[in-house]
Description:
34% of the residues lie in helices and 14% in strands. With 194 residues, the chain is α/β, with parallel strands linked by helices.
Amino acid sequence: MKLWLVRHARPIVQEGICYGATDLPADPQATLEAARALAAALPTGLAVRCSPLRRCLQLAQALHALRPDLAHETDARLAEMDFGTWEGQRWDAIGRTAFEAWMADFARHRCGGGESVAVLMARVGQAMAEVRAGHRDVLWISHAGVVRAARMLARGVPAPAQASDWPADGVGFGAAHCLDLCDPGETPAAQPQA
Length: 194
């Protein structure tokens, strides 16, 4: 079975801002362009789950307008990581000490008092377990952090031991990545999709 991971279109936010779980809108034109590309590329028969954040809902709604077979349900587990008090701050203004504390305990440190990577991975893992149990191809409209977490979990990694273990290569705004989810013990194959 396949899990299609789609990232929302570019959000309307200044470059360099930590926005994680902040409920920002996406650029409407970029959202429409992404929806058009996805509508042409995605197979039929997908169950669609969407982060409840506005930038993802915009894409889900635009996609559904083009492909009525792709009606979505929201799933809070697909929201981006909550960075607590770091939300809305420039990354370079967060403070070296706070950032170093995260790097020293990358999986468990609660960034800005919000979530940790381990918490993000646990909720994404629960959602992935449901996908596997459902025996149906699924599309998630979500965020970069969720996509990275899902890719690690598909490889059997429950949490990164250190920051360098976190996937550096993400998925672009409005782009898709497809995971083949195998039975436990098998090696999954991932194919990037446009």
